[in-house]
Amino acid sequence: RSQISVPVFMFFLSFYYCDNGLSSLKMELLSDVSLLPGEERITDKDIIYICPFSGAVKGKVLITNYRLYFRSSDADVTVTLDVPLGAISRVEKMGGASSRGENSYGLDITCKDMRNLRFALKQEGHSRRDIFEVLFRYAFPLSHGLPLFAYLGQEKYAENGWTIYKPIEEFRRQGLPNNKWRISFINKSYDLCDTYPTVLAVPYKSKEEDLRKVAAFRSRARIPVLSWIHRENQAVIVRCSQPLVGMSGKRNKDDERYLDLIREANDTTKLTIYDARPNVNAVANKATGGGYEGDEYQNAELIFLDIQNIHVMRESQKKLKDIVYPNVEESHWLSSLESTHWLEHVKLVLSGAIQVADKVSSGNSVVVHCSDGWDRTAQLTSLAMLMLDSHYRTLRGFQVLIEKEWISFGHKFASRIGHGDKNHADQDRSPIFVQFIDCVWQMTKQFPTAFEFNEHLLLTILDHLYSCRFGTFLYNCESVRDQHEVRSKTVSLWSLVNSKVDMYLNPFYTPESGRVLYPVASMRHLELWVAYYIRWNPRIRQQQQSPVEQRYKELLALRDEYLKKLEQLQLSDSSTSSHLANSPTPNTTSSSTSTPSQQYTHLQTPL
């Protein structure tokens, strides 16, 4: 038998434990990261995060099929990153094998949520190749023949969020159908319009054949259909796409008659058509077969709202990102913010929605469209409905509004966000939905007691707009969602929200059913949404919690505590009273003989 000396044996033993101890230490660094059901670890690696606020930070990165997770290993600097891969827009290699300078070799990651990430690796043996390939593959699954994470997730919730919006129920809540408006199922197989929902509300006097004729004269066959009706004055908000007038100025008698049926439904003197575009753009669209309603539409007036197109909005948000990340442009902040034109665009969208809401509130029906009726149109109709109808200002009502006006009516989420798609330079990308949520936030700031939901809900919605964790914002329209079985194979974002309702409630909410909200859409009253656009800056993050809201929550908790004690006192009093009732007591008629429990019921807190 071969002999090994004790010292040599101990050396090998210590080497073995040392080596394995180090690797297990590395694994332990990220072993406590809690994963979602269906989430799988793909790879992890020692890496340096070039933090724009703390400098170069050593640590370890974990990549799963859902997220990129980084945690620093330095004792003196604590940095963690938790980024859903769906939020990644672009992954690039930084530097080459011959690059000089510290931390010049690694990865540059551009995100869709207003931040960029930079990681450095050692310049040896293609150390970044594996992590680049894994990241590129799982951040853009559709470009690599892989499913989006929403189809792999296995989260379970008590409530099925897919049932939050039922078109027939929502129309009934509005008082439809009635003797002026009917429900049509002409699009039940998406034959009339493949980007519209299956259930449509149309004028009672219109026939199915009329709808087909009108569809032939509207861009993408997106005919004018009802979005909302005013219960008292019966004025309506109708949405559609542009008419196909073209350079030759074509007319369509069926389309003209159809719009007149909308006007007649509540005897509006003049039907107001709000074209979201600048006049010059609408005229230019004639060259590609589009256009706008001319004088041939009798008893109608046309108003242009001057809201710019998706390309202008995309460039505006890019400029905004440049001045807020990684560092806020302090020296010329106001002029820098003004140069992005972001708040100016927000102002125009809000101003347009106010005009729509005011016109309907005064009893006049309106038609709203842009070019195709799925971007600016959705912004205007949904914001106007939010102003007019307090139901949409509740937590569940707001979910219905998004499902109805954005998701079911075919806002092109897949094209505008680029879920799972590596083509970051796609000209269809645009922050239209982000801009809508920004407008909602502006309204919550101006009317802090009018909304049942809080800012945290708006932030959660925007985070999951990108994350691909839920099926809610996937694909461009309902017909495509049906093909991909989104409702049966993925979880709805509203399942998460409605399972944690307390997190999303506004403690200042005061229900006011008949109140119409008219926000002030002037630059003096609009603010940059710091908690969203600048939230990655740690200095800003520390200031986010409103002290007033924090104190209010503390007082509410205190109230709950006192109410619980009050309940306990009442219980003990009632048992004492029943004990006294069973024993003989002197008869008295004094008004001061009310029981303690009766006195307690009159106790009220100022909250």
From TrEMBL:
Residues 598-607 have a biased composition (Polar residues). Keywords: Cell membrane, Cell projection, Cytoplasm, Endosome, Hydrolase, Lipid metabolism, Membrane, Protein phosphatase. One of its GO terms (cellular component) is filopodium. It is an enzyme of class 3 (hydrolase). GO terms for biological process: mitochondrion distribution; muscle cell cellular homeostasis; negative regulation of autophagosome assembly; phosphatidylinositol dephosphorylation. GO terms for molecular function: phosphatidylinositol-3,5-bisphosphate 3-phosphatase activity; phosphatidylinositol-3-phosphate phosphatase activity; phosphoprotein phosphatase activity. Residues 340-386 form the Tyrosine specific protein phosphatases domain. Substrate binds at residues 309-310, 370-376. Residues 574-607 are annotated as: Disordered. The active site is at residue 370. Belongs to the protein-tyrosine phosphatase family. Non-receptor class myotubularin subfamily. InterPro entries: GRAM (IPR004182), Myotubularin (IPR030564), Myotubularin-like_Pase_dom (IPR010569), PH-like_dom_sf (IPR011993), Prot-tyrosine_phosphatase-like (IPR029021), Tyr_Pase_AS (IPR016130), Tyr_Pase_cat (IPR003595), Tyr_Pase_dom (IPR000387). Residues 582-597 have a biased composition (Low complexity). It comes from Oreochromis aureus (Israeli tilapia). It is a peripheral membrane protein. Its EC number is 3.1.3.95. Residues 161-533 form the Myotubularin phosphatase domain. This is Myotubularin.
